Amino acid sequence: MKKSALQRVRADYQPKLPKDLQGSVKVKFGEPTQSVANQEEVKQLFPHTYGLPIVEFENDENPTRVEEPFNVGIILSGGQAPGGHNVVSGIFDGLKKLNKENRLYGFLMGPSGFIDHQYMELTAGYIKDFRNTGGFDIIGSGRTKLEYPEQFDKGLKVLKELNIKALVIIGGDDSNTNAAVLAEYYKNIGANVQVIGVPKTIDGDLKNKWIETSFGFDTACKVYSEVIGNIQRDCNSAKKYYHFIKLMGRSASHIALECALETQPNICLISEEILAKRMTLDNIVNYICYVIAERAKMGWNFGTVLIPEGLIEFIPSMKSLIADLNEVLVDYASELDGKEEEEKLKVIHSHLTGANADLYKSLPKHIALQLSLDRDSHGNVQVSLIETESLLSEMVARRLEEMREEGQYSGKFAAQHHFFGYEGRCADPTNFDADYTYALGYNAAMLINSGLTGYMSSVRNLTDHTENWICGGIPITMMMNMERRNGELKPVIQKALVNLNGRPYLKFASRRETLALNTLYQYPGPIQYFGPAEICDRPSMTLLLEHGKDID
Fold it and tell me: Which CATH number fits domain 41-58+70-215+429-485: 3.40.50.450, 1.10.510.10, 1.10.10.10, 3.40.50.10800?
């Protein structure tokens, strides 16, 4: 495959490695841990992997162990995120540093490759073409959920055939929950197979004190911010459209908030704030109309509105409806099977109650149908398929006409709709993500060599110089709580939502009124790989603010 000039030069980039991983390492054990909530329930489900200590690596000045060769398998699970190839590269290089005889196998197309014994050995020559590139095409990814003993047992057969000592699952919160379940199962049956997780998701909702950011978030936000900046330049040039821009991020609003900090749009909705203030759909529409009407008074009939993908789940009335719908879709699946659209809507409506039934009936048909689509393999609403940007602009247009009749609005309103999701998931990683993912992978190899299982690779202190990053691992069970999924209570990693008391949100909130009633757009431009470190290596504004750094 012929590479572009940029790809050829980029392939030579050598990610920077924290100093604690540059030589031989030894483990420093911390205190025992417990889950973030539902401690007794989680402990009962994970008796062999609950309460493990946090670990950190430090240089071993006097290594005495001769490392025996071992094999490792990897799975790329869930949606793509920039930097996944560097995780694989980091694991490979870490294994080879330990012993040149170590071998790495990749299971093809996600967890299904593990279950169905579809794999390939990843060699130096093969991996070379994927270093510092975007995508998961090195082995492919998939969304098959690992949850049944039959799957675990079937996968165990290929692990034994290949003499694989450890399995690394590179994924988001649900995929790493699966990793914890698998680690517990293999520990329980004495399979002698370690399972390590790596925190991947552009959504930004897999984070805590020890996982400061999930990989891919930085790159994806910079890609989206570049395109938002381009749209805002166009918007400020033509001065005739309101651009309603929905941004990927599933439940949390981290991407929307980061892009708002980067680009300074007129409006950015934050789902977590809407839930906290118990805002209705009408409240949201009225706020957008207020901004549009005020801007029209100044002769500005244009603007940008950022909308988080999962917004609709956070509007209290919609949240209640979705919870009710989740139960109906499970309990009456056979009755709904094969029904045409109109009939399906009627059947669902007949099983909803009270306010939920009224709200469902009031929604535009296409929105009601989108809310009623099958859930994903983890029981989540497929929010990316719900055209929230279209729903809001339609409601805004209707409300503005009412305001015009009431003499409260005399401007012009025309809308354009955008949804940025796939555009950012496979971008070539920023320098930050290239370094971070390589360190996460290399670090995972050290966790395996230390004999640990049920851990997630952790690299932190990320706003300091790369050499000062702190490496180690945290038990996956410490991030868990119990949530209702597909009608049952399940152990899952607790999602990290936008903190309304955190510096990133407060920074945005302090500017909101000024941004709404002025045109102060920022145009971040494309990702830069070569040049001053303050441009090329800068982490996300969210991360900087969370670490007490200023972004002005």
Answer: 3.40.50.450
